[in-house]
Amino acid sequence: MATIPLSQPPLDGGVLDIVTICKADRWVDEILPRFASLIDTNCSATVRRHLLLLTDAASGPDEGRIIESLLRANWHTVVCKPFEDPYPGRRLLAFDALRSGLLEVFGLHEALYIDPDTDVIGDLQGIQRFAPEADLLWVANPLLLEPVLEDLRRHGFESAGGPESPVLMEPGFFYIRRDLRSEFDAACAKYPDVHSFAAGSTYWNMVMRSLDAKAVRLPDDYNRTFWDLSAAVTSARSVHYTGQWKHIQPFLRYDRADRRIVIDPAPVAMPATTAERQPSALAVVALFRDNADYVPHAFSRFAAWERAGVPIRYYFLENDSRDATAGLLKDFMQTRPGRLESRRLKVRYERRPDGENHDRIMPLARMRNFIMDLAMSDPPQAADEWTLLLDSDIFFPEDVLSRIFAAWARDPRPESIGMLTCYTQQLFQPDRIPRIASPAPGMPDFVICDHYFDTFAFQDIGHRHHHPFCGFARCRRCREDGSQRYPLPLVPADRPIVDVAAAFGGFALVRTETLRDPRIRWTTYGSGFDQDRVLAEHVVFCDRLRTITGRRVVVLQDVDCVYRL
Amino acid sequence: MASAIAAIHVNPTIPWHVRFAAAAAVGLRSIGVPFAVTQSRERLGHALPILLGTTFWRGIESSGPFLLVDRCSFGSPGDWVTLVLDGHGRRGDHRTPAVRDGSRWETYKVEVRPWRHPQGARTILCGQTEPYSPHYSHVEPWYDRVGPFCTHFRRHPASTRLFSKPCGASGLPETTSWDDVRLAVTLNSSVAVDTVLAGIPTVTMDEAAMAWSVTSHVPTEAVTPDRTEWLHWLAWTQWTYDEIREGTPWRRFL
């Protein structure tokens, strides 16, 4: 068994559009599923895959089945058009020409083109922020193709015998910010007498050189052409196979833990694509007050999920805001399904720092029930729709849903889980926890220490309330505060899915069918005259959910990318 | 290069979207139309957006021409879809032929029952999940207007509760029966086609209602006009999946 080390861990980032071209032939079943799966597995945040599917006279009746399988594999856009070869007899040149005009085809402003027989084995996110002034970002082809070099020298694009070794662009992987079709066609027309061996490569290199400073070379690890085991693919984020290695591609498996490629004796089964790791539909239920600074963050995430194809309906209750919250919510809801309610409460509920008193918790519970009842009065968009219960000032990455449902799928009995909550971490100012702080990914002004924030709503599986401590062994803050002598058992750090009696964390997913039972709602209870310490409304909610449905409430310890200010 | 002429906007998590896209792909291919299938909530270049259902594509609807693929008016939704340009229901353009004989309608042999005499005791208010009407932003104000004229309420099949908030129809008893009915009242729901085909005098109160031309528009008034011409028109507003797959309707719309 041969092994090859893998690439660096992922960057964070925004939407990345990846485009490719494929004929409507056996590659649709044999190559594209692997291409899609590896992109979804290894690229962070939102990636949209786009396909130009070229048909010919023979592929007609199969078109319906192909479209169906591509949609199920979550291709964002598939453009189908008949294949017309304007360069007959010139091997693959028509495909190179198509690549130069792909942005118009998909209506995109910029995109990353990758040949479909490329394995994406590292994170390509962030490439879209590289050299933003450039029209073309390219990678070098480690193979110096002599016929191409000869053509470039003959037509003055490359000097012969210069001090530096020539570098060729690899036209199977590049990022474009404008279509280069006119430049490509001009090169084809002006220099018709090039070698037919790799004419497309020759013309792309002419275009790249003619763009001068507008064409910028990417670091070599973004894509490597792989023709031999000793080749420099050890740090590659994507690998393009050539020669005999094209045939062995289905047998290659990527071992992320050991950062190596393994050659298996049988074809490798690919992991699920994002389509299989997303909920079919989502309802978002949230309360807002004076959150004008926060809501743009949530909106950007919702929009990303919509772009990724998740149908979402929204139910927002805004009350008594003195800032622009109500207007922002109204603008957002203009073209979206759901309901926005803006209300003025007769009695403003208390906002005391400890937040455990009846006069705060009971109004909150009533408001949660009001907007939930509205949400449940509308039909779900899919039978297996989930409802997101979101609190304000909760920060989360675009790919949080994929992470949650991937974690959920790893549970031995996922169908028995009724409520998924995250390991929501408290954000701190750096000077508050100087000795135990670590950076908070994506939140540069804050630090974290694995402290679970929602200690008020949390009760472990033994119904023990740890508040104000968080009850998790991994928390460095609670341990620093004296947990060496802590009298209660702590949740071990190595348990990815933690069954609990109650939890919320400001970001929780519940099956919509569960919430259509009007008994599963929020309330609170005190214990006598002392109304300053009542039960968190989520404790009652979780208790009802567990006892009425028989399903579990869990905290996903590995999904710790959700933060609370 | 030539871009797509039509773009089918799909939510791949919804089974009928996938089924329709597959059928449409075969049909568009058969007539040589380059097309795209996309999850995008935005227009794809200059391609005519083919929007599946009314839920997800409001941003596209509000920004230019579109072809809506909607629930059929008669027959099984598993067999038929309605195709309409630039609007919902009758408010859009179905591209029906100028001369419509009865041949298409008669092909499908849908039962049309004689008008019931408007002598029943019950006026049934037929609920909707959304108004889809420029006259009403929510259904509750319309319920407020017609509730006093009605004796019973029939909830929309997709609704799980009678009313999401108190309104002028809140006190009406719920019914699922059409017995002893004098009038069915709806804003623009497709239930009006069902009631008209069943011979129940019907009131529609928004011009988008597919049964607008054979119904009254006053919540107390029953009309029983000749339905023949309307039925012939209705037959050209919807298409079978086989026709979609064969490419039959596309030339009318592209």
Blueprint of the fold:
The complex is a heterodimer of chains A (565) and B (254).
Chain A: E1 3-5, E2 16-23, H1 27-30, H2 32-42, E3 47-55, H3 63-72, E4 77-82, H4 93-99, H5 102-106, E5 111-114, E6 118-120, E7 136-141, H6 146-154, E8 168-176, H7 181-190, H8 199-211, E9 215-217, E10 224-226, E11 238-241, H9 245-248, E12 252-255, E13 260-263, E14 282-288, H10 295-307, E15 312-319, H11 325-333, E16 338-343, H12 358-377, E17 386-390, E18 394-395, H13 400-409, E19 417-422, E20 425-426, E21 438-439, E22 447-448, E23 459-460, H14 476-480, E24 497-502, E25 507-511, H15 512-515, H16 537-549, E26 552-556, E27 563-564
Parallel strand pairs in A: 2-3, 2-5, 3-4, 7-9, 10-11, 14-15, 14-17, 15-16, 19-26, 20-27
Antiparallel strand pairs in A: 1-13, 5-8, 6-11, 7-8, 12-13, 17-25, 18-27, 19-25, 21-22, 23-24, 24-26
Helix pairs in contact in A: 4-8, 6-8, 7-8
Chain B: E1 6-9, H1 15-30, E2 35-38, E3 48-52, H2 58-61, E4 67-70, E5 80-85, H3 103-108, E6 122-126, H4 139-146, E7 152-154, E8 181-186, H5 191-197, E9 202-204, H6 228-235, E10 238-240, H7 241-246, H8 250-253
Parallel strand pairs in B: 1-2, 1-3, 3-4, 6-7, 6-8, 8-9
Antiparallel strand pairs in B: 4-5, 5-10
